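Peptide/nickel transport system ATP-binding protein
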Amino acid sequence: MALLELKNLHTYFKTKKGIIKAVNGVSYSVDSGRTLGIVGESGSGKSVSAMSILKLLDGNGYIADGEILFNGENLVDIPVNEMTRIRGNEISVIFQEPMTSLNPVFSIERQLAEPFMIHQGLSKKQAAEKVVEMIDLVKIPNPEAVAKQYPHQLSGGMRQRIMIAMALACRPRVLIADEPTTALDVTIQAQILKLMNELKSTIGTSILFITHDLGVINEMADDVAVMYCGQVVEKATARTIFGKDSKYSHPYTEGLMVSIPRLDTPKGTRLEAIPGAVPHPLNLPKGCKFAPRCKYATDKCKENEPQLLEVEPGHQIRCFYPVKGVRQNG
């Protein structure tokens, strides 16, 4: 059952050069107790679609159309000043870079205590006790001492764990993780991902995990939505996306897959890459948005835009040629 559902969401930004359609008709859902991975290159609309849920948009950003359904409410209709009862309480966010999210002049204790005092009405002393519990929960040694420290005194991995502790303080029903391991080395990244999976099992929180790294998605996600140019181009379970048995895939997903370095790749083999770059949102191509970079594109792709259609139960693809074996280089 869908706990959080986006239906035909359109999020735009007003600029001097025109309207940027950062999210253009996106639909996806996060089921209770599951992790939805959102994957795609930078500029594909992953973060904007997620930040639209809590209306954490820049001043020139606005939701032009669509629905965001959570717990029986359409969050689009809720005024921004009333979103505080949702933010950090029922839906929390782990941001990409903890050093820009943590206030450098306040101690960890003061920053971690805020959710408890604001949303749960705890006293300062009670909140301080909860802070130590949360720091211990995310497996940081000597939590009493760490609570008194400041962000600059902690390592990158410890700061990210503090961000996770802050996001999970009120036991939210949905956790939005916006590339939470991008700035970390692979060893710390593995520890953070393992920790998030353990906390998901312990607390029962559903996770919306945003990343450009398919390897991370393979490890974390139950379901996957692949985004490109503000649209979802493929949706399926992680087993379907990463499995070798499915006869369907979007060419963009295929391109992301083959660009991943593999241990079994023969020495000297050149890594395949998707040619070109994501088009500027003010200069999108006429037909399929991926057509200029797609080796399978035909005249039909360049003139007409495909719809997101179900090719098999639970598997949706936005492509005129979703069957792997029949499409040929255009």
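thats it. The chain is about 30% helix and 25% strand. The chain has two domains: 1-90+175-263+270-286, 98-169. bye
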